[in-house]
Specification:
Layout (H helix, E strand, L loop, with lengths): L7 E4 L3 E4 L8 E5 L4 E4 L9 E6 L2 E6 L3 E5 L12 E8 L9 H17 L5 E3 L7 E5 L20 H14 L8 E7 L15 E3 L2 E4 L1 H7 L18 H15 L35 H7 L5 E3 L11
Parallel strand pairs: 8-10, 8-11, 11-13
Antiparallel strand pairs: 1-4, 1-7, 2-3, 4-5, 5-6, 9-14, 12-13
Helix pairs in contact: 1-4, 3-4
């Protein structure tokens, strides 16, 4: 995908500035992660390559080694109010977990950088500060599993109770097609739900992740909501991948074809199925990318944290 002339590209993996757009051509200079180059041509570049300038040197760099760090004129651009943001919903009977909001912000930026490295610089937009805001809930942690008229909690009860609280607190609604809300609520789904107390729900425009995802981002195991036993400690990357999976749903992506039916044809390595556990060594597959290309929040956006590593 072409980038505008004058766009700043951040190097995210070791590569070379080459005289021609092929890996066998002469290296004009080795490039290290963290260095920045400037795009000098918006068109005419072979697929997978950018023509760039480093100081006075002009050459070619492979697209999967760089991400868009700034667009021309972005320094004076207005604050971005469209995109993805995080809400940390703290129940009335719980205290805010130290470092949790920062961990959520770092995770979102890591997920943003991940597709930019493999999709020609395209990724999803993140709103300007506050990327992650803390909202004090009216409900207790247990109250998030209360169903109307005493009905038994279901897999969506936590989601159905959390979303209205957040939308009311931030003055939002589902009628905002260019906003996506990631809600971390410090409560567990009801024990006995169809997902065994580990439900994570996403739908277009919003995704809800429960307390064990918060603990996971903080590098903590916690205890099972149903058993009370200590959970196995999973890598932080697994929980960052879980955020990417649910964000995919919020952006309109389904599970891969055949996966819900447990067919052999299921693309199980896709981020939208089991690939979240291997993040960042996973992918949004071709059907995912085709759907994302139609989403106005998935385009050529600057990445502030160019590394796709986990916090």
């Amino acid at each position: 995908m072409p980038v505008p002339t004058g766009a700043t590209l951040a190097v995210v993996q070791a590569t070379h500035l080459r005289t021609l757009p092929r890996t066998t051509s002469t290296s004009r200079r080795a490039l290290s992660p963290g260095e920045r180059v400037v795009a000098v041509a918006a068109t005419g570049a072979p697929a997978g390559w950018y023509k760039v300038k480093l100081g006075t040197r002009v050459g070619w760099v492979q697209g999967n080694a760089v991400v868009v760090a700034a667009l021309p004129g972005s320094a004076s651009a207005p604050r971005r109010v469209e995109g993805v943001s995080v809400v940390y919903l703290v129940p009335s009977d719980r205290a805010e977990r130290p470092g949790a909001a920062d961990a959520m912000k770092r995770a979102l930026r890591a997920v943003q950088a991940w597709p930019a490295r493999h999709g020609g610089g395209r990724t999803f937009a993140i709103v300007d500060e506050p990327v992650a805001r803390v909202v004090r809930a009216q409900r207790t942690a247990a109250g998030f599993n209360a169903s109307p008229a005493g009905a038994s909690p279901t897999a969506t009860t936590l989601h159905d109770n959390a979303v209205p609280e957040v939308l009311a607190a931030v003055g939002a609604s589902f009628a905002q097609p260019r906003r996506v809300w990631i809600i971390y609520v410090d409560a567990d789904p009801a024990c006995g739900s169809p997902h065994g107390g580990a439900a994570v729900t996403g739908c277009p425009g919003v995704a809800v992740l429960p307390s064990h995802d918060i603990l996971g981002l903080l590098g903590l195991a916690g205890t099972g909501a149903c058993t009370g036993a200590e959970r196995a400690l999973e890598p932080v990357c697994c929980w960052v991948g879980g955020l990417g999976h649910e964000l995919g749903h919020a952006l309109g992506l389904p599970h891969p074809v055949g996966c819900d039916a447990h067919l052999a044809s299921c693309d199980s390595a896709d981020l939208m199925w089991l690939g979240y556990a291997a993040f960042p060594r996973t992918a949004w597959n071709a059907p995912d990318r085709a759907l994302l290309a139609q989403n106005p929040l998935y385009w050529l956006f600057p990445v502030q944290q160019p590394s796709a590593s986990c916090p």
